[in-house]
Amino acid sequence: MKLRKTAAMILVIFMALTVFGCGSSSGKTDGNSGQGGQSASDHYPVTISTYNYAKEPIEVTFDKCPERVICTNQTQTELMLYFGLDEYIVGTAYLDGAVRADLKAQYDALVAAGKELTVKGYPSKEVVLALEPDFIFGWRSAFAENALGDVTEWNEKGVGTMILRCSNNTAEKRDIEAVLADIADIGAIFNIEDKTDAYIQQAREMMERIEKKVAEQEKPFTAIIIEPYDGTFYCWGSNTLTGALVVAAGAEYALPDGGDLTVEDIVNLNPDVIIIDYMEEEGLTTDECETKALETIVGQAALAEVNAVANGRVMAVNLTDVYGGGIRMVPSVELMFQFMYGD
Q1: What's the CA gap between 234 and 252, in Å, rounded?
Q2: Which pLDDT score is estimated for 3?
Q3: How many other C-beta atoms can be found within 10 angstroms of the C-beta atom of residue 49?
Q4: Burial category of 41 from C-beta neighbours within 10 Å (exposed 0-12, middle 13-18, buried 19 and up)
Q5: Which residues of the chain have pLDDT under 70?
Q6: How far is CA 253 from the centre of its chain?
Q7: CA separation, residue 286 to residues 7, 119, 282, 317 (Å)
Q8: Which of 335, 303, 304 is CA-nearest to residue 318?
Q9: Whole-prediction pTM
Q10: What is the per-residue DSSP string for 170-228?
Q11: Which of 92, 136, 129 lies closest to 114, judged by CA?
Q12: Following DSSP, what letter does each residue of 220-274 receive, concatenated?
């Protein structure tokens, strides 16, 4: 049986992939001095292509390394911590779940310094203004009118902004390359391209290895990634980042357009692999959340003969690991690949 819960597996994969970034304050790069990159005078100004709330492409220019950064979501905070940019964070917000284990000590230091603005939801515009940020790094939803307001307002105040391409379906093409493009932008903004370029190179080498391994198979596994709700399931399409990660892991996607599924629909699809994403629930441990997610499939007698269930190829992953972008996405591709095909 290959059915398994994945919290411990994810941690093992994450720890094995520490080459993908600093992962500790000892690896910090001073973007102002250019340590580890070009001197600031040679590097700046830097212009990136990003988006406004309406999903329209815009350009934002940074004349120097940002020094007062607001991270509106856990995804952005973890990305900053991973590349050792803690010192620039003046405010962090909106946890979707537990902070990555290897980043927890860094995050706890932010909390101890009073930099955790909110745990759920976005901080008010007034709170953010009072912190005098020079860069707001967010999901698109953070720039809604009932949150911080559109990026134009902040850009006019001289505050740089960046929206992750795959957050809230912002970019038209949402896949692993879009995630790597975000990381490249952070490298340019903070003058740490030596570190982000290394991450991107390692990620692409991993992708090449996956492609080679899958090409050796007689036939790739068919797979879907689904989210249970109210007795039914939402299947992510392969045009979403979540679905695209499964394809990147070497699967042939069984339902490219995605959509709502019943138990009968899953029987008819008969995928070789089913990946279930779940969100942390208050009052439940991670293990309990995973078990609950798995039971929505393996606990259904009607699904017993589906290939994925019959062959024990059902796994559960935290939604945070496969949604929105950031530094969790690359390890998740490796994790799903190993689950399906092994080393």
Answers
A1: 18
A2: 54
A3: 12
A4: exposed
A5: 1-37, 343
A6: 20
A7: 7, 18, 10, 10
A8: 335
A9: 0.89
A10: -SSS-SHHHHHHHHHHHHHHTT-HHHHHHHHHHHHHHHHHHHHHHHTSSSPPEEEEEEE
A11: 92
A12: PPEEEEEEEETTEEEEPPTTSHHHHHHHHTTPEES-TT-EEE-HHHHHHH--SEE
* CATH code of the domain made up of 30-191: 3.40.50.1980
268-300: pLDDT as tens digits: 999 999 999 999 888 888 899 999 999 999 999
Q: How far apart are CA 213 and CA 45, in angstroms?
A: 42
Say which residues have a Cβ less than 8 Å from residue 273's Cβ, sequence separation at least 6. 221, 222, 223, 224, 251, 308, 313, 314, 315, 339, 340
Q: Among 262, 267, 272, which residue's Cα sits nearest to residue 235?
A: 262
- How many residues belong to the chain? 343
| Dihedral sign computed on CA atoms, order 85, 86, 89, 95 | positive
Q: What residues pair up with 261 in beta bridges, in sequence order?
A: 233
DSSP 8-state class, residue 163: E
What is the distance between the alpha carbons of residues 261 and 300, in angstroms, rounded to a whole number?
14
Cβ-based neighbours of 256, under 8 Å, separated by 6 or more:
237, 238, 239, 243
**Interatomic CA distance for residues 341 and 223, integer angstroms:** 12
213 exposure class (CB count in 10 Å sphere: 0-12, 13-18, 19+): middle
Give, rounded to a whole angstrom, the gap between the first and last alpha carbons of the chain: 17
Q: If one looks up domain 7-12+210-341 in CATH, what number appears?
A: 3.40.50.1980
Q: Do domains 7-12+210-341 and 30-191 have the same CATH topology?
A: yes
Question: β-pairing, 222-229 with 273-278?
Answer: parallel
Q: What is the CA radius of gyration of the chain?
A: 20
For tokens 């901080």, the residue is 123
Domain range annotation of the chain = 7-12+210-341, 30-191
